[in-house]
Amino acid sequence: MKETEKLKNPQTWRKWGPYLSERQWGTVREDYSENGDAWDYITHDMARSKTYRWGEDGIGGLSDDNQFLCLATSYWNGEDDILKERLFGLTNNEGNHGEDVKEMYYYLDNVPSHSYMKFLYKYPQTKFPYEKLLKENQKRGKQDPEYELIDTGIFDEDKYFDVFTEYVKNSENDILIQYTIHNRGSKKANLHFLPTLWFRNTLEWSEADKPTISTMDSNVLLLQSKKLENYYCYLEEEATFLFTENESNDKRLYGIDNQVSYVKDGIHEFVVNGNKKAVSPQQSGSKAAIYYQKEILGKNSVTIRLRLTDKKTEAPFKDFDKIYKQQLAFADEFYNEKHGEKSEDEKLVQRQAWAGMLWSKQFYYYYVKNWLEGDKGEPTPSESHQHGRNFDWKHVMAADIISMPDNWEYPWFAAWDLAFHCIPLASIDVGFAKDQVLLFIMERYMHPNGQMPAYEWNFSDVNPPVHSLAAWKIYQMEKEQTGKGDIEFLQKVFHKLILNFNWWVNRKDTEGNNIFEGGFLGLDNIGVFDRSKPMPGGGVLEQSDGTSWMAMYALSMMRIAMEISYHHPVYEDMAVKFSEHFFYIAGAMANMNNTEGAGLWDEEDGFYYDMLHTDDGNWKRLRLRTLVGLLPLIAVEVIEENNWEKLPGLVSHIEWFTQKRPDLASLVSKWVGQDGNSNMQLLSLLRGHRMKCLLRRMLDENEFLSDFGIRSISKIYEENPFEIEIENETFNVKYTPAESDTGMFGGNSNWRGPIWMPVNYLLIESMHRFHDYYGDDFKIEMPTNSGNYATIEDAANQVAKRLTSIFLKDKNGNRAVFGDNKKLQEDPHFKDYIVFHEYFNGDNGKGLGASHQTGWTGLVALLI
């Protein structure tokens, strides 16, 4: 069955997928501490011995969509002190720039049905430098780069294994597994390789019968659980079976007696320490490893094959090659249709970007009420835990497959990240993208007051409201793909987002002036102050970006209401409502509280700045040029004239409104007969003059325009940092193109110089919308002061090309994302494996932050 046919029955084909997290330890869900220190409650060292409550983790793993049964790989090179069952990384306190995974692994391929998936893990043959990575990063300061695994030199002599894991589905419950292990070194080397199956521990918290894995004969495992039908795991080549239980080793962890004879780390004890009593002689348990000991000659490889199926079969490997080739061919066919006319390198990057998006789907389980109160039969959590983090979100009951920002560094959902994830996901699996948007407006996620949960560290934090944008974009993409839009989907989204929009208006517009302030707002440390904390000296920070996000929100809600109105005219009044919201927001940005000169726009600089409204009633303009001041560009909508004509009530109201409030209408609207395309209507925060002013700044290589996209802050602050004094305290901001030099917001992200894909994507999209209206006759200088002029669309395409050049080979065959690392740039076993980082150096495009954040960085798939 071809991939497109499988997507017609997605729930069946998506039952098994890459839903196993790369890290469950150190998460909020597993933290029952009194002080809320999730990183220390379960550490990497404890993880091999402690049973998790809310999920599982493993390397390149697979699970069913309820994560009852898991499969992943474990490794031992004969040198390490521990069995490698999960990826290693530093905690937020251990890393000089916050938490960071210290491994080399790659998401190489995946299709929406997960009928073909490919993962690569690079495992050193010499002792893994756990201690060296920890100590060197602790020695380094905020001014220094992170010390990565490849920096230790452990790969320099090619003494490592490349382990490729491939999953191939013959049917929804019949999964072929192929491991190809390459010895990249010149000499033979030994590898202890353990594909491991286990059931998530639900026994301690329910009355359900315990699931078991046992032997049927020398090359078959039987997996029995009341939560799943029986499964069989067939081995092509016989191996040693090791059995234990997925139960905590309380003796090692806490110095108290174990409740069972065989515990979670029993297989580690057997393999690494030779403790034969650590595994069950009964040949059964809830955790089982298939133990291979392989001696692999230099520059050679071995292949190991398994088959996990719900059907008994006499010849499980007879049709293996045929099925493997067929599913790989279906994957190739699917992506070749998606690629279109592109170079081979563009196809490689685009396909790996999509693969990373799909590998980042994770089973996320978190019932907040249960977590706060504790489980029956377990110790009652402390009073501070019961009334601590996420106390106001007891209604949240998550047990879903969710697109994660990064499976190791951010193995939890983030609401605004997710909205961006859905856009590239919609290009390959529009059904899943729609499901993700709808998930977060369901009653078991959205707060009764209309707020959406931000992320598990603090559900009450505030992120930019981009769900409506994602919903509208997904609708348009599906309409383009199939010729028909899903109006019912738009209606479902629209109804619930009205609640969310009203929450924003009531909670974040505290002074009732349509200017939105406060909170995290997703851009972390971009501003002068920590925006999640009270302003120095009191007062309120009136934010250009918060207001721009809300203007975009109002416009997208208006556009959704218009689209629904073509089918259900009763929605036309809602289009009117959101058009008025947009007008009022636009007016407020220009003139706050009718105070002359108190608008966010600065005519002298041709830029938008935040304003600090102090307790004594004064206004202070913060003349810091950042991405914040460019964001008014994103609030733009162009509507074809024939679409206006379908809604005479809306047109009539806007005409009436412009007569009564010409001060507002003149700020944002271009109507038929004015400059531009006479078949279009433009709604934007910007008239032509202000748009050109912002584009002039944005496209200036001395300010925002890098060779690799739009920087988050102007480069002018590299030599001349911004400074301001308030209440005898001096605040400053310097252009910092790489990692953050402060600990603000955890210190593991930086918006004071680097390039971020999601906002670049929005700016590029807005430029295309402006071009739709102004057309080919409207030219801008690209780059600024170059003497070269281009249409707005051409300029947008040039910015997109700079962004994609982060990943694509340059004329010398190098990829900017790899920086100056010669191994990554030149080695044939590294140079074409792409990682999609969280953000990128504002000067040279090197990848920074979370190394596998194919979430919103996956947007690059749409820019190629």
UniProtKB/TrEMBL annotation:
<feature type="domain" description="Mannosylglycerate hydrolase MGH1-like glycoside hydrolase">
    <location>
        <begin position="686"/>
        <end position="854"/>
    </location>
</feature>
<dbReference type="GO" id="GO:0009311">
    <property type="term" value="P:oligosaccharide metabolic process"/>
</dbReference>
<dbReference type="InterPro" id="IPR054491">
    <property type="entry name" value="MGH1-like_GH"/>
</dbReference>
<dbReference type="InterPro" id="IPR012341">
    <property type="entry name" value="6hp_glycosidase-like_sf"/>
</dbReference>
<dbReference type="InterPro" id="IPR008928">
    <property type="entry name" value="6-hairpin_glycosidase_sf"/>
</dbReference>
<dbReference type="GO" id="GO:0004573">
    <property type="term" value="F:Glc3Man9GlcNAc2 oligosaccharide glucosidase activity"/>
</dbReference>
<dbReference type="Pfam" id="PF22422">
    <property type="entry name" value="MGH1-like_GH"/>
</dbReference>
<dbReference type="InterPro" id="IPR004888">
    <property type="entry name" value="Glycoside_hydrolase_63"/>
</dbReference>
<feature type="domain" description="Mannosylglycerate hydrolase MGH1-like glycoside hydrolase">
    <location>
        <begin position="410"/>
        <end position="514"/>
    </location>
</feature>
<protein>
    <submittedName>
        <fullName>Glucosidase</fullName>
    </submittedName>
</protein>
